[in-house]
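User: quick one, fold this
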Amino acid sequence: MIALIVCHFALAACAGPLVHRLGSRAFVVLALPPAAATVWAFTRWNTAASGGEVTWSWQWIPDYDVALALRLDALSELMVLLAAGVGALVLLYCASYFRGDTPQLARFAGNLLAFAGAMLALVLADDLITLYVFWELTTVFSFLLIGHGSEQRHSRRSALQALTVTAFGGLAMLVGFLILGQAAGTYRISAIVADPPATTLAVSVAIALVLCGALSKSAVWPLSMWLPNAMAAPTPVSAYLHAAAMVKAGIYLVARLAPAFADVPLWRPVVLVLGAATMLLGGWRALRLNDLKLVLAYGTVSQLGFLTVLAGAGYRDAALAAAAMILAHALFKAPLFLVTGIVDHAAGTRDLRRLSGVGRSLPAVAAVAVLAAASMAALPPLLGFAAKEAAFEALLHGTAADRWTLAAVVAGSALTTAYTVRFVWGAFARKPGVADTPVHRVGPAFLAPPALLAVLGLVLGPGVGWTDRLLAAYADTFPATEAPYHLALWHGFGTALLLSALAWAAGAVLFAGRTTVTRLSRRIAWPTADSVFGHLLLGQERLALQVTGFIQRGSLSVYLATTLLVMLAGQLAVLVTDRPWTGAVGPRLWDNPLQGAIAVLTCVAALLCLTVRRRMKAVVLAGLTGYGAALLFVVQGAPDLALTQFCVETVAMIVFVLVLRRMPVHFQETVSTWRRAARVPTALAAAATVGVGVWVAAAARTAEPAGAAMVEEVAEHGLKDVVATIIVDLRAWDTMGESAVLAAAAIGVTSLIYLHRRSEGAMVPGELLGRTAWSLSARHSARLPQGDDAAPERGWLAAGATLAPEHRSIVFEVVARLLFHPILVLSVFLLFCAESLPGGGFVAGLVAGVALITRYLAGGRFELAEAAPLQPGLFTGLGLFISTGVGLAGLVDGTVLHAFTYYGHLPVFGRFHAGTSVLFDFGVYLLVLGVVLDIVRALGAKVDRQIERAAGALAPAGGPGPEGSPR
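Assistant:
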């Protein structure tokens, strides 16, 4: 099972080269994974039909009982056959539907196959978290497929609407899954269904949230607006996602959980009422539309409501009818969408008012459409008839609520018959007063996929008994009935057949009076869900603008004060209400007086920040508070933390200085006296509240501290530095996540400086016409002694010639040149000594970054380019790659981030040992170095270049490109 899923994603990644080489014929190759999954599913038919199952699992997060678990049973067998079988045929259909030069065809092909893989994994998932992951993958890929024509505004809006609705439902469903898993004590779906938790308020809330996700995915009212708009996607997408795959995911989830939770009081009212309402509203709307795809779209909404009623009814015969109807719906709705694509392809329009005589011109296409439409209208001897008879019979013998639902279903079936006939008439009939529509010939390969599906609907009508054993295996998971229903084409004359005849007759009457029905429908039409959704978004945007204008006044101090006051109010409310300090050990002022002295000086520096008007003074004072914290770490005996804090504060102050070059010297904000007076007590109150909160949290400890155990664990491995070992071994997951966040944040911030491209090209002195940015603002003096031109001159920097003489500091250049390599050696020492001495990849990367900053400060951007000719992204990406690779290498021993250590002997150096934790730390080292270099290039070299370009000091040769692009 897992191999089939992986094959889908692996081949999807190769879609680009395949389409580039084979054109639209690449879809034939891409159809191989879903075709293989179909064949595999057929080989497991007997196992699933006998009530057996095929399982596979891999422990993903063992401590939380989360596993990548897959399971094939009767219901999964049915869904795999539909998702994979229809998917393979749709991919083959795409080979004829698209031309080889269709724009963005490779991306479309890869997304479609990846969606098929995600859908396959979704229906096989036996773990709630695994199911959610693939559920959201189908959401993402459907967004990309619906928005394939991204140059059109309607496509973008439709894709965003589908993403908004289904992602919102998915998040609600995730919360429900978490509550359900905690209540059941497991996230394994088969275990939850076999032994569901008792119905409590928490479980009821969880079921409501899960239903919210399922119903949004299956476009059940009032969340049905996204599906008709999704018809902006190419027709193959509509045929697959909206007939056999994505919209069936919600139905599948309802059917999967119904055996366990149909008795929850909330379940049946929600499912029956919303399902019946969706069937009626969707069918009624389909009667007045003129686009063939929209007629089918609203018909799909109607049918999904019907399927929701059957899947969620909660007893055996309704479940059997639901399974049969799921199969029938895929076999008639997918070919109808595909036929619509053929008609659009051949005639150039889908407007049924303009189509005329297409049936005479394309008789084979019309025959396939009539066959599929007959199954949709539940005419014998098609599969749709057998499935609907089973549904009528199940609801007829249900409770009073089921019989009321049956009345709505019969009315919905009449609407189904009416819009089915209208579809066939609109697409293929010759209409009075409308000229025959010219069409081109349709090849057999184009028609074969929908024809095969329609013929299957015909064959499985009389042969529905062949599927009874499989579908009954799922239905038997519900409590047994006295006279269980069995699928058959003919059950004799009875009430169910009479209701079918009534639906056919009523549908024929509605079609005969289609003009009156259309006029009436438009006259009494209420606002559509789509328009309501649009007005809600518009209202939300207007409210956001008003709130933004009221709150965001452009004052950073106001923002900070608001944040602190809200935090202060919340913390004080909790502290006053709970009084958590009762019985807590009182805090000590200090362990030795030196701590108190440093703390006082640090507080003084922080308070002085409130009084200064110059930005540079504020930066220096803020930096002093950071250095004060580092000194506290030194006094407390935490050299690792102190070293890291010193390096961070140094780099941060330099970054601040680089930024301040483009900002006014003084703060521009005018502050009134009372506001200035209010800042001090606000800051002191916030600091005191945080301090009390930290004390209360520390005093609330009930368990033994973990420090002793960590020291013992580290000592057993022959190591001494506990902090470094925690970072790269015991809590390496945290380090990996923090590294990724650091890289993303740095790249995002520095990208704001590069307006178009991050690559700056080669920074060569030859591009400079005038002075550098560092000497443009300097005061030049012609009276300075020039010295002897013939005297020998020593160049301490590689790019020293680019600096104006009056701007150079020979002492600084000499110091930078002499210290650069020793600082780099120190960084390497800090990297490799971290097992026994203070150090580590993070602080080592910062130290190496300080070395590069020193070169930049001494010689400018050309000196930085000489010192670091490689792009920062190379270091950042390589660091992430190494850290992630080391983490994944642990899978060899069964778990991610498992540490390995090698002990050896070298002739000169003697005994040594090398561990994967060092390699992991080396990845952190490269990542931090890349981040620092990226920041210096963006806020230093890039800003220098902008200043020089504005002053006309750059050579125009080569054409200086737009901001952020190479010359």
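User: anything notable?
Assistant: The beta strands are 54-61, 66-72, 901-906, 910-915.
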